Amino acid sequence: xxxxxxxxxxxxxxxxxxxxxxxxxxxxxxxxxxxxxxxxxxxxxxxxxxxxxxxxxxxxxxxxxxxxxxxxxxxxxxxxxxxxxxxxxxxxxxxxxxxxxxxxxxxxxxxxxxxxxxxxxxxxxxxxxxxxxxxxxxxxxxxxxxxxxxxxxxxxxxxxxxxxxxxxxxxxxxxxxxxxxxxxxxxxxxxxxxxxxxxxxxxxxxxxxxxxxxxxxxxxxxxxxxxxxxxxxxxxxxxxxxxxxxxxxxxxxxxxxxxxxxxxxxxxxxxxxxxxxxxxxxxxxxxxxxxxxxxxxxxxx
Length: 301
Fold this sequence. Notes:
Elements (H helix, E strand, L loop, with lengths): L1 H63 L5 H4 L3 H47 L1 H14 L4 H12 L4 H24 L3 H9 L4 H38 L5 H10 L3 H29 L1 H10 L7
Helix pairs in contact: 3-4, 3-6, 3-8, 3-9, 3-10, 5-6, 6-8, 7-8, 8-9, 8-10, 9-10
């Protein structure tokens, strides 16, 4: 009887300890959930506060302007057509070719540089530890200050503008490619190792194909940045280019010419993105074919 009583007391103590542990864990989870809700609520409140303050600032300044209307802000299509007819020759022969040359040269260099840095970081943990902070710090430096230094060093030719385009574009290419290389299927890598593949073969057969969709995603971002980077460099100082045309339009208070330059910039960026999409479809036909076969619902694939 004493053994039975001691066993019952032991079971009762065990149940009490289990219940106490459950309540303790429940209290910890409840406290963590409450802290998470408080933090998210604070973030949302800050976002709403800044949004409201910004909108109020815009409304107050807009009301302070006299004769503010859509007609004074946006030129009509006829005015844009007149500005195009007036400057068509110089735009087609001088400004657009110069901007395209700087854009394509800088974007190509950025792609090669980004792929090289991403591959080095993927191959070597030491280089990853050294280069990754440098990449992040490079994006915190004002491009405007760097552009002025480049002009003082290299002069007023196309070289500084190309370097500005490289600075705008290489970071998204590098980061996207490196992320894609790191996201290769570990089961596929293990299978290749079991089959006797070396590090180079694994990189070529598994890591590089897995990184290609991410690479093209970064390339699309870089393509939109490239034209803006070229115009940014031209706007500081240059003799030809859409940035020069835009700067002269602002100096002469010709909004129709300024909007024409903005429209041409958007068109060039759109054409580059479409070109990247075309190259991606041709280069990654296996990727889109696999997606199309695995799709089981309505969609575009």
